[in-house]
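Deliverable D5.2: sample structural annotation.
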Amino acid sequence: MSQQSRTRPSGSATALSEAYDTALLDLDGVVYAGGAAIAYAVESLATARDAGMRLAYVTNNALRPPDTVAAHLTELGVPAEPDDVITSAQAVSRLIADQLPAGSKVLVIGGDGLRVALRERGLEPVDSADDGPAAVVQGYGGPDLPWARFAEACYAINRGVPWFASNTDLTIPGARGIMPGNGAAVEVVRIGTGAEPQVAGKPLPPMHRETILRTGARKALVVGDRLDTDIEGAFNGGVDSLLVLTGVTDGARLLAAEPRHRPTYVDADLRGMLTGQPEVVERDGGFGCGGWTASAGAGALTLDGDGTALDGLRALCAAAWTDAGEGACALDAGKALARLGL
């Protein structure tokens, strides 16, 4: 089934770790949250790696450089090298370097991840709009980024300096819940300037290009928790995706997904990489998966039968996405999701 015509999750007769040569894994909300490993992540990744799957960690979070991220993963029990980590800081730095001469000064609104990536591309990070920057780059700088940094960005951009953003994720998962992400900070600068940044991160092509250049993946599987970055990025890159329900996406958001946000596969967590995926089939005027049958009509999605919550959700996806066609499903799914405890 093509990405453009997806109306139901796909099945797989073999484990995904065997069907794909490389997993392009998001980090926040997939491997860890607030710095702590998500349940089953460490064991699942070890099993996938032992089966011969290449693991690459692809994050829109530009705060930390790859060596720091790799060290953190290793501490969690997921052995990783800096070359296994691809960040939006690297993608945006390549985007800037393609447009500016080597040695150009770039005003950094963010953390060390941006500075390291800029230097890798032969660019010079600076801290003030008065340092003569040829560009401004903005990335997630952590919850304690001073307000004065946004002012520096506005001063430079209002003088005509081009503006780049690592990503525009409005939120980011944290140890205590969902926090504002770099996209929220980008909105502050947009309000102060009226300008629009060039954006590199997921779901846009610069990030996919950076990932493929650095991994050499031939048959990649994107694994993520966000529809508007991970899954849309896979859609834009023409590769398959696995949505895990350990981050920001819940059942209601998934059922309402428009075509570019519909994942190839859906599972609870990273254990879904280690198994096949059940088929969703047409059944009794609706769609069946396992012991469940879902259908759309009379303003609502209905669910009959019994079985695992995931199979029920997969069946509901087929009913919702088929009814919505090229749009977003607006049918009431509350009762059906409540039956599944979602």
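Annotation notes: The first helix runs from residue 16 to 19. The mean pLDDT is 96.
The annotation will be released with the project's public dataset once the embargo ends.
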